[in-house]
Amino acid sequence: MTEEQSVPTLLFVDDEPGILSALRRLFRPHGYRIFIAESGAAGLEILARESVDLVISDMRMPEMDGAAFLKEVRNRWPQVMRILLTGYADITSTVAAINQGEIYRYISKPWDDNEIITIVREATERQRLESENQRLSALTQAQNDELKRLNASLEQKVADRTAELRQALSFVEQAHGELKKSFLTSVQVFAGVIELRGGPVGSQMSGHGRRVAEQARSVAQRLGLPDAEVQNVMLAGLLHDIGKLGLPDELLAKPYNMLTAEQRNLVMKHPVVGQNILMGIDKFKEAAVLVRHHHECFDGSGYPDRLAGIAIPQGSRILCVVNDYDALLIGTLAQRPLKPAEALNFLIDNRGKRYDPTAVDAFVKLLAETKKTGASEVPLRTMHLKPGMVLSRDLEHRDGYMLLAKGSALTAEIIAQLLRMESTEQHALTLYIRQEEK
Questions:
Q1: What are the phi and psi torsion angles at 263 (to 5°)?
Q2: Average pLDDT of the chain?
Q3: What is the pTM of this model?
Q4: At what angle do helices 227-239 and 208-222 cross, to 10 degrees?
């Protein structure tokens, strides 16, 4: 592989030269090969003659908008990663780009420099892993075919090829594990972006999706759901509020029971919008169904379809219990935040009415056991951190977005980044580190 081929190549497409110049200045110091185009047609011409790893396209462009352009890129060059630049006002077009262009991510304008650099780095790394996964899979298949052709008398040769095959398979499994981790990290980051739409209550909403996902997954496991369904419950928990991205800020700033009837009708549409956004992506099809029904009530009084009892998917019944509990604690469901005991009493009082009794019982037991066996932790300043330490709580920026998720293992690189952040922002960080019981 030549040096030019090993460097990721980016293509920026926007009808505003100023935006293209800004993107080129931002990414040039990071060693990427960069092409620019002022229209979708010009971008397609570059793709036809150059090997490009990732495309960043604006949504609003004359003649061919971002959704149409990225759809054409997907059809002709499916291996190219696709990212859309858009604004909150373009939610309908953004949904079209997600469904038709199967974009990797979309980024709201104006973008945050550090965020867009991180997203591009993760996208190119993910593409590299997928390419390596395909290469290793092809290698495995080729070696398997060769094994079939070996003469039975050549026992030593068979043993040698078997050893090579096992090594190749281990590489495939490692690449798959890294790809899965990258995918889940991307989903967690996107869940954090959703919570930034919380307006004045944004700080209270911080971590809501991760808490719902984590607790709902634990309940699903307790109820014996298959691993695939448990995974879908977790994904739906992280992304259950994605349909709220198109709602006005003033609706997100009020508890649900303080909204007018007209405002409630708008909010009640978000589960369907969420399903529509997610269902075009294969990995999210089952989770999208759970998102649609996570506000259905056991007695049939919920929305959007007024399903009742076991007609509601079990994963949605679990999410309804866990989501409402967290919403009661942070004050987005009732007029004031409730204490844990008050929120728990609300669930129990509505057992068999609003909530599935089985889900409530499992959740109550989970909370009781979690309280009884609370994990030991110690707060540390950044200068005292060491590689290998594990976070016992989410690390959040003072502006409300997540920096590191609970359970993340610290590395030397992460610690160095945190130290640089402290120095730049002149703001000390405190991390809570898990203490192993002796």
A1: -65, -40
A2: 81
A3: 0.49
A4: 160
